[in-house]
Amino acid sequence: MALDSDYSLPVLRWDSSIAYAETARRQEEFVAQGKEALIFCEHPPTITLGTGADESDLSFSPIDYENRGISIHKSPRGGKATYHGPGQLVCYPILNLRQRTMTIHAYLRFLENSMSSLCNAYEIKTHTIEGKTGVWVEDRKIGFIGVRIRRGFAFHGCSINITPQQEAFQQIVPCGMPNLKVTSLQEETCKTYALWDVADTMRDIFYFMMKNNGVIDS
After folding, report:
1. Could you tell me which residue, 54 or 185, shows the higher pLDDT?
2. CATH for 115
3. 30 falls within a domain
4. Which of 96, 128, 95 is nearest to 112 (CA)?
5. Are 68 and 114 in contact, with CB atoms under 8 Å apart?
6. In the prediction, which pLDDT does 7 show?
7. Measured between alpha carbons, how far is residue 211 from residues 12, 68, 93 in Å?
8. Tally of domains within the chain
9. What pTM, to 2 d.p., does this model score?
10. Which of the residue ranges 98-102, 134-138, 175-179 has the most confident prediction, judged by mean pLDDT?
11. DSSP of 168-203, one letter per residue?
């Protein structure tokens, strides 16, 4: 695990894949201590079920997923089922929205704008869809959001596909949307990217957005 102290919030990242349960535990610790942080990571093949998910969001039985090397976790975040795995950057901002006088709606837009800015840095044009969270490239979803609010703190967060993930997402009903098309930075640009280089770009975007949109005082 690396801790970047050059920024006003602790920035944690792991240089290898880390289990979902471990990052969930770390987030709970930060919230319990009333501390803010940014966590960037990559998970092994994992399906998480948000508070709105049920068994109909799973395409196979638990034993089938286990045989495929995919773990399943119930998550306190909002939303339905989603997939995390190699080639996907997962971002967990832990922020005190109450102290920052930021509404949940504004925070969701902040996450969407951050992911859109990341895509724009790689010359990918994105848009959002009214009534849905996340970021799309035409009819293909590239950025995903699922958050939890507790005692005024937002945790869990967002993820963005770096490498192709369509086959993995076909193993669930992602975001409650059957036959959802997904895409990635690699597919949209026909270029390859090191995940941690993308994480550094996302970190800088988070801080720029925070300092200029009132999330962190400049």
Report:
1. 185
2. 3.30.930.10
3. yes
4. 128
5. no
6. 61
7. 19, 43, 15
8. 1
9. 0.92
10. 134-138
11. HHTTB-BTT-TT--B--HHHHHT----HHHHHHHHH
